[in-house]
Amino acid sequence: MSLGPFFRSPFTDLTASMVNFQQYDKCGPMEMAAIDCLEAYGTIRGNEKCADLLADFKECAIMSKQVARFRAMRLERHRQGLLGDKKSEEYYAKPPRVDAY
Q: Does the keyword Chaperone apply (predicted)?
């Protein structure tokens, strides 16, 4: 996977950084660390040198593990409900009282 453009032109240089995560507190520092590492090693060699930083940033941006964990918990809840282990009222925890805040 190459992170650089297929061909370079003034247009690709002008629009290279239009989409970024710098406005988000959660993923902004990870993006900067990954970009700094890629800038130091280049885009081709940086893919193997910066693999851990790129993987962390990708997980922060896409949240694939978090979504997979959510789906697994949801499927387990529904499985327990279909088998009769839990009633439908016991699927989720009860919300806090109104005056609890």
A: no
